Amino acid sequence: MSRSDDAAGGTGASEVDVIVIGAGPAGEVVAGRCAEAGLSVTVIEHERVGGECSYWGCIPSKTLLRPGEVVAAARAVPGAAGAVGGVRAGVDAAAAFARRDEMVGGYSDEGQLPWLRERGVSVRRGAGRLVGERRVAVLAPDGGEQVLTATRAVVLATGTRATIPPVPGLAEADPWDNRSATGARAVPARLAVLGGGAVGAELAQAFRRLGSAEVTVVESGPRLLAREEPFAGDEVRAAFEAEGITVHTGRRAVAVRREAPGTPGGPGGPGTPRGPVVVTLDGDGGPEHVVADEILVAVGRTPATGELGLPVVGLPARGFVEVDDRMRATGVAGDWLYAVGDVNGRALLTHMGKYQARVAADAITGRLDPAGRPAADRADPGAVPRVTFTDPQVSAVGRTEAAARAAGLDVRAVTVPTASVAGSSVRGTDAVGTSQIVVDTARRVLVGATFVGHDTQEMVHAAAIAIVGAVPLEDLWHAVPSFPTVSEVWLRLLEAYGL
Ligand SMILES: Cc1cc2nc3c(=O)[nH]c(=O)nc-3n(C[C@H](O)[C@H](O)[C@H](O)COP(=O)(O)OP(=O)(O)OC[C@H]3O[C@@H](n4cnc5c(N)ncnc54)[C@H](O)[C@@H]3O)c2cc1C
Ligand SMILES: NC(=O)c1ccc[n+]([C@@H]2O[C@H](COP(=O)([O-])OP(=O)(O)OC[C@H]3O[C@@H](n4cnc5c(N)ncnc54)[C@H](O)[C@@H]3O)[C@@H](O)[C@H]2O)c1
């Protein structure tokens, strides 16, 4: 089988071992790992190799959060505080945007191609869609179409797009989604954010610290970060309110109006300023309207499956592609169709998509896992790590207390203040947050852990290892945390449990 690399525009082979549709983080990894195992692989991408994460997700959002985080951290350290102004005054938005541009490679995927090239993966530019069993049509940017055949497997890795809810007037108001927000070139004076999940919370704080005078988060559920422990959302809310971000929970936008959309080239003509947007809220307890200069929609994700031709193989035309633990699409016979990453809806996180990609590649190539077992997803749902990069951070892995009980586990949760250890105080005067472990009382092992606080992002992997390794509490007792680190919170938690 030929291994032509047509990333530069060649034609490539029409029959290969594996075809991957979508070259985001999940698609890249499944393609690379299959190729490393000696298979011929073509990956089809209609935008940029690297996907949402690289250009409009993880990377730009974390880059835009970072300046505000550093300035806030410095302000909490007597001796350093004088070197920076106020939390927002110290942030240079133009320089932050320039750094963002650098981190996204100037929105070019040139830097992402060598990794695939080195593995002999062929990249086809165009939109892929299923046209039969193991058959995929590629619609090239020039309108040409070619049908490719996979002798072994087709892997769907097309990810998701921002969901725009059917709120009257919202679409006409030309709202921001994660792409426009992470790609912003100016800071709106007033920003309204619909949705208080990870996207909404991170970007609300990023823009407040980049200089937005008013940021208002409207969340329909009872709290921010609903997937996490309730105390996490409450503590992030308290931090938001302390720095002037308004949070409305239990409220929905029922109408949106923008007098003059005024986008460059739009109804108001090139360069016309956009008029303010007025968001009408339902529910009680707060204002009826929020007025802002931009409105960011962050209410969840819609799988990019509508154009994939799924009915051809007997699957519903839209929605997430359901998979088994080997990442095979359920309901499709013959073990040839796989789905990895956001598109299967299991865990919408880059690292989990890449883990699923390794599982799928090994399932396709027949490689056993390091323990000699057939490749399978053994992390989800019990050991999914996640970090929300707000300040304070919410770093968690495994099940929340409620999710553990819902899964039928008999658990006991203990909490301690993250600030109860010297490492937190040495870091600064602003220590906040709660840390918690959720313990399976029958096995005396961790099934969940959450650390809210500063610099907790690096603590979560220790908890992941404790959960995946099913380390008994009695053994964890001998894992001595260094002094003075924030990790000493582990010791406080074990003591709180009664050890
Ligand atoms: C603002 C924001 C911040 C985030 N921050 C984090 C974070 O900090 N950490 C984290 O773990 N996750 C984060 N995420 C989630 C993360 O971005 C996704 O989980 C991840 O990008 C999913 O990877 P994927 O490969 O499954 O899909 P995607 O990254 O969406 O890639 C799919 C690719 O498929 C292509 N494609 C789609 N349809 C077709 C087609 N028919 N033919 C050819 N190509 C096609 C697309 O162009 C795209 O390149 C964030 C998301 C957002 C929106
Ligand atoms: N740091 C990270 O790892 C990170 C950062 C960003 C995104 N992500 C991933 O991206 C995924 C998508 O994030 P997201 O924040 O878009 O979705 P989400 O599902 O996490 O949160 C969306 C929120 O919007 C609320 N909502 C829904 N409809 C609403 C409406 N009409 N009005 C007001 N609120 C409404 C929901 O109650 C929910 O709390 C997440 O699942 C997460 O895994 C991860």
UniProtKB/TrEMBL annotation:
Disulfide-bond pairs as recorded: C53-C58
Keyword terms, alphabetized: FAD, Flavoprotein, NAD, Nucleotide-binding
Amino-acid positions noted as binding NAD(+) in the UniProt annotation, renumbered to this chain: G195, G196, G197, A198, V199, G200, A201, E202, E219, G300
Family matches, as Gene3D superfamilies: 3.30.390.30, FAD/NAD(P)-binding domain (3.50.50.60)
Cofactor annotation: FAD
Pfam families: Pyr_redox_2, Pyr_redox_dim
Domain FAD/NAD(P)-binding: 17-352
Binding site for FAD: K62, G128, D342
Pyridine nucleotide-disulphide oxidoreductase dimerisation domain: residues covered: 384-490
SUPFAM superfamilies given in the database record: FAD/NAD(P)-binding domain (SSF51905), FAD/NAD-linked reductases, dimerisation (C-terminal) domain (SSF55424)
Record's cofactor remark: Binds 1 FAD per subunit.
Single GO term (MF): flavin adenine dinucleotide binding
Family stated for the protein in its record: Belongs to the class-I pyridine nucleotide-disulfide oxidoreductase family.
Protein's name in the database: Pyridine nucleotide-disulfide oxidoreductase
Organism: Parafrankia soli
